[in-house]
Amino acid sequence: MNHPKYLKINKLSFKNLILIVIACFSLACYSQTNITGVITNPEEIKWVVLHQYQGVKSEAIAKSPVSEMGAFTLSLPDSIPTGMYRLVYNLRENKYVDIIYAQNNINMAFNVFNPLKTLTFTNSPENTQYYNAFGSILNYENQLRVLNDFVQRYNKQDNEQLYKLVIQEYKNNVQAINKVYHNAKINYSKLSCEYLLVQKKYYPNPKDDFLLQNYYSKQHLLDYLNPTNEYMFQSPILNDVIIGNIGQLRNEESTTIQDYIYAVDLILNWSAPNQVLNKEITSFLADGFKMLDIPEVIEHIDVNYKANQCEADSDTDLQKRLKAYERLAIGKQAPEISWIDNDGQAQLLSKQTKDYTVVIFWASWCGSCKTILPSVNEYLNSRADVFALAVGLDDNKEDWLHEQTHYPNFNHIQAKEKWNSKTATDYAIFATPTFYVLDKDKKIIGKAKNVVELKTLF
């Protein structure tokens, strides 16, 4: 045991063992998992990009060029969490496939012309199970749509027996979908099952008309989503549901501000149990409606949701908006505006004597103004009882003077500081064109963005 040669061997072995352990530890620290794949018919596909979702936030975390043969490899650090990720292969047309990532290598293949039906995985049971069930559900749902459309258009008096058969077939398909979910609960991995269950839907009664079906579908939109579900949080599903809900309303010809407010209330009340998620969604929706330029919904979000959040008192921008909403509410006295007219005379908004006043906020550089203002100018020119005051948010006097020649019936004043001018801040202007309608006493009747909305205020 104490032989010098033996000790020497053990010292060397121990040294080698340490080196091996260090090497293995280093490899573990820098090890990566890969998503590899082959895309059939990849002629127009140059890159694939993997997006990670957390709540309503997303970011691109990996990308790979696509070879002429359609091959790609995405290398992922082990630090990214288990969840559902979105592989975008055509950004322009928003074409993608979703992948369940379970900390293992994934190998996949699909055809760009029919990705869902051709999508295969060779070593990812979570994705194989998920897409087998998901494909079955989609097939049943397609049949439900056809059957529902038939019931809506068919006069059951023509053939009551056929009508009943179609209704029964509709019910059979709903039962088949429920059976898929039941089977997933028993036989699938937890990940596959969870990502199926969070996408369950409410299927309307085919005997109800389309309007009633649409009403119930909106009411039940979030029935199967739990705001505290970590699997949903680590996936694009929540983002899809929110954008889909708002987008569905926006695509309807009868869309009104109340439709949007209904959708906002539905989503934010649902997410209330998860304060972090609720805050994210509140900001997400507010930013979205700013892009859509719908200030009424932004005001609804500010007053009913953002104002109640913990940091509301320290949010100076929010407090400014809240004060502006109160100051500019219907029935309130409009802020005073003073200017010098073309004759060099001082003028005040409060001294104008016509029955109505329209304060128009516009700019020579505003493309929407050039589209909308001609019809507004024509309409107001037909109204002898209206005084039109156009506030140009322009720092370039020559452009402002040139553009205002198209609207000779407006009384024009220039706000050189644009958004930061006193008039723009007094009236909380964030977009052009914006129109305030005032009564004879200069009290606010309402606000509009186009000639249609303007006409409704008179």
Radius of gyration using CA atoms only: 31 Å
Stretches where pLDDT is under 50 for at least 5 consecutive residues are: 1-30
**Helix fraction bin:** 40-55%
- Total helices: the number is 16
Cα separation of the termini: 106 Å
How big a fraction of the residues is strand? 15-25%
Structural class category:
alpha+beta
Task: Give a quick summary of the entry.
This protein has 458 residues and is of the alpha+beta class.
Describe the protein's architecture and organization.
This protein is of the alpha+beta class and 458 residues long. It has helices spanning 4-30, 115-118, 125-153, 160-187, 190-197, 210-219, 230-233, 237-250, 257-270, 275-291, 295-304, 316-327, 367-381, 397-404, 422-426, 451-456, and strands spanning 32-40, 47-54, 57-65, 71-77, 83-90, 95-101, 106-111, 120-121, 338-340, 346-348, 356-362, 386-392, 411-414, 434-438, 444-448. Strands 13-12-11-14-15 form a 5-stranded mixed beta sheet. Strands 4-1-7-8 form a 4-stranded mixed beta sheet. It has a 4-stranded antiparallel beta sheet with strand order 3-2-5-6. The longest helix has 29 residues, at 125-153. The chain is elongated, with a radius of gyration of 31 Å.
What is the fold's blueprint, element by element?
Blueprint: H1 4-30, E1 32-40, E2 47-54, E3 57-65, E4 71-77, E5 83-90, E6 95-101, E7 106-111, H2 115-118, E8 120-121, H3 125-153, H4 160-187, H5 190-197, H6 210-219, H7 230-233, H8 237-250, H9 257-270, H10 275-291, H11 295-304, H12 316-327, E9 338-340, E10 346-348, E11 356-362, H13 367-381, E12 386-392, H14 397-404, E13 411-414, H15 422-426, E14 434-438, E15 444-448, H16 451-456
Parallel strand pairs: 1-7, 11-12, 12-13
Antiparallel strand pairs: 1-4, 2-3, 2-5, 5-6, 7-8, 9-10, 11-14, 14-15
Helix pairs in contact: 3-4, 3-5, 8-9, 9-10, 9-11, 10-11
